[in-house]
Amino acid sequence: MKVLLFNGSPRKGNTKAALEALKKGLAQQIPEAEVEEILCEGKSIIPCRACDACGSMSRCIFADDSPQINAAVEAADAIVFATPVYWWGMSAQMKLIIDKFYARDRKFHGLKKKIGSIVIGEADQEDPEYGIIAKQFRCIADYLGWETVFQKSYTANKPSDLAADEAALAEIEGLAKLLK
What is the value of pTM for the model shown? Predict the structure, then answer.
């Protein structure tokens, strides 16, 4: 089993802590899983221009990191998107990568995948930002025919808050079983 983790944060704080907890859970519950983490920050991604050249060429015309990322998505059995909240949405770094899924749209449709999302923001859980982002990930999964197995959100103000929240980390570790 291959599990692909997307880290949408440019910092080494709460999103990293969440993914570390998930990796711990994966090691315990699915020890045979191959886990790959893609740090969205630092990837060379040229924004999609909707030129549709990828439809006839089966690849994007721009030379960036998206072919390798899209190949990793294609090979994965499960994908987890972890992102901080940026103005009521996922991080810009993650959105660039997801937009480039367009180049593999036809190949991604109908591939059997389980997906999850972990969203971390400063607002209280009642804030609409969490629902907006969850809906966007669910729409992407539904469009591609992928199964959404979890959507979780956490409130964390300082970069070290989630790492200090034992209950949240235990919950995130437990999410690994849903990816089987």
Answer: 0.95
